[in-house]
Design a protein that fits this description.
The protein is mostly helical. It folds into two domains: about 80 residues, no CATH class; about 190 residues, no CATH class. The chain has ten helices and no strands. The relative contact order is 0.08.
């Protein structure tokens, strides 16, 4: 049984002040009767309210709104950590997003936004999240000296080929495999950075294109752009690609730590 509805019912202001009122009445009258009544009503309250569907929907809505607000605050804090140029791009896109909505309502006379325009908020959040990934991965790339890894790989291959015995050869072979995987992860990381950069440009271009389309619109019926779905699908694929490459990079870094190859970790100082 989900206990969150009981917990929320106990924390309701009406419940708190109701119990407080009975406690004050008991103190004022010097009688236990108000407390007994309070216990009886509380038992009925706590065994009834948490099971009412409307109350459960209210609790779920509060929880959802709370999580949305937490995510909003986290995103705003994240934006503050961006460079001035990055913040400028984010804020300009935010401005465009709001202008598109206002222009649609003003030019079409519609009372509310269509579902696809409401999704602009999510597309803007996607832009912020992808920009954060882009800047962190780009910084990650700067910490990797590809030439140094290639030199180490060449030396490891030579050491493996000239190993005096099987034990030394196996050690060097392991080293060769690690370095090859490190180079592969570098290439994968580099490709993902370029991919995300293209996706960011795609979102920016879409907002600009949409802003132009809205200016020429006259009725809500004329507003139906398949590009919304295409952009959404493209972003979803980009996020999937990032998840896959993140797992690969994390696994490789963990393997390097296990083998004490600290010089191959992204934060190593060379």
């Amino acid at each position: 049984m989900n206990t969150k509805y009981f917990q929320e019912a106990l924390k309701e202001p009406a419940n708190f002040w109701g119990l407080t009122g009975f406690a004050i009445a008991a103190a004022y009258t010097q009688s236990p009767i108000p407390l007994l009544i309070a216990l009886l009503l509380e038992a009925i309250y706590i065994t009834t309210l948490p099971f009412i569907p409307a109350y459960r929907r209210l609790v779920n809505r509060r929880e959802k709104e709370y999580l949305i607000e937490i995510n909003r605050l986290k995103r705003e804090k994240l934006i503050k950590s961006f460079t001035p140029r990055e913040r400028e791009a984010v804020e300009y896109l935010r401005y465009q997003k709001e202008q598109i909505k206002k222009n649609y309502l003003r030019l079409t006379g519609a009372k509310e936004l269509p579902a696809n325009l409401k999704s602009l908020d999510q597309r803007w959040e996607d832009f912020v999240d992808l920009l954060d990934v882009y800047r962190r991965r780009k910084q990650h790339l700067k910490t990797i000296n590809r030439q140094a890894i290639e030199n180490q790989l060449k030396q490891a291959i030579e050491a493996m080929e000239s190993a005096p015995d099987e034990k030394v050869r196996r050690i060097q072979q392991t080293n060769v495999e690690i370095l090859k995987r490190r180079l592969a992860s570098f290439d994968e990381l580099e490709r993902s950075v370029k991919h995300v950069e293209g996706q960011l440009q795609s979102i920016e271009n879409f907002f600009g294109y949409l802003n132009d389309e809205i200016i020429t619109i006259s009725t809500p019926e004329k507003f139906s752009l398949i590009e919304f779905e295409e952009l959404s699908n493209s972003i979803a694929l980009t996020k999937q690609m990032l998840d896959e490459t993140s797992e690969a990079l994390n696994a490789l870094d963990a393997h390097n730590r296990q083998l004490e190859k600290y010089d191959l970790l992204p934060n190593a100082h060379r």
